[in-house]
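Sample intake sheet
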Amino acid sequence: MKRIIFTGDFLRNSEKHNKRYFLWVFKILMPIIKNAISPDIKILCEIKNDAEEKFSREYFYALAGEKDIKECYHKCNFNKLSQEQIEYLKKFLDEDTIIIGSEMYAPLCDLLTSLGCKVFDFAFHSFKLFDDLAFAIYTNDKNVYEQMQKYKVPQEKFYYYANYWKVFMEYNNMIPDDKLQDNSALFIGQTLTDKSVENDEGFLNIEHFENEIKELAKQYSKIYYIPHPYLYKNSKEHIKYIKKNPNVVLLNDVSTYSVIASDKIKKVIGISTSMLYEAKYFNKDVQYFLKPLFNIDASFEQHSYTSIFEDYWNPKFWADVLSPICDVNFDVEDANYFKGTSNKLRNIRDLYWGYESLDPIKRIPNFQEVIKRLYVRYIARKL
């Protein structure tokens, strides 16, 4: 019997963590997908086998002798899984399983592929400037991949939105050119603990790239640094390092997008931040110190994530893209429930990030924002 299992990165993160941070998206998508598929297909929000036995993350790692398992960001060595671990996974996952996951990334997707599963990996798209959050979607089935290409967002749309927002910021006097020198570079900071900045040595930040910064300082008048908007809570030592670095100028209380839009900024650099992806549509030279989080809109063989916007709110989309791998309802309603609306996803968990400075509602100062900015200024003065 075919099964669709909604999950997150169930080896890296605990079930509790996945439910809190990832599975809420699928609660919205589930009624749409149900309408698009055969009623004989079982839908699960946790990994179970036909006997209703539930997958145990703790037991999986215990099979390899691991006991102290982190609730989130636990590192799984996919190249050294024991045969016992593989056999345990096979009790739950096989060729009748369709996995629709959130931010699982390549190693886990490859493992699921080796077990015979059909895979969809959903991730919030690196481009955050549309009227709501878009998705980047990976699939390991080539026929499904080909179906999705009909819905791919054209490159012209990314450039158009970036240009729109640049004009918007220009005519609303939001671009801080008075604070910037010509021929400068911008380093965009990220949170200090996130798998997007993780390599074999641990979690990376600007402090790991001192030599690269020195070389860039020879080419550009200034290198500006903007911290991640959520970093103010734990940034004291990090910011202190940046303020002591003679090659870096800390920028506070400015919108990252407004700095990217400035013609004085010639290069945008960072570790893996999605804003580097966005900066290229503002016609900036871009440099990743690590690598992009996703390989977006490449060929199927390159583990590519396809840019999709709004179509996933239409049951017809799901009937179309799932048709190569399961029985679907082709008579399902062809109607996009959220087409032309804004912020349906952003508002559920307040996922605005840098877009907050552009949104007409969020631009209105509120008490929490005032407190946050006062706190950032207080910390900056103390350092």
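Comment: Residues 7 and 46 are 6 Å apart (CA to CA). Residues 3-152+297-349 form one domain.
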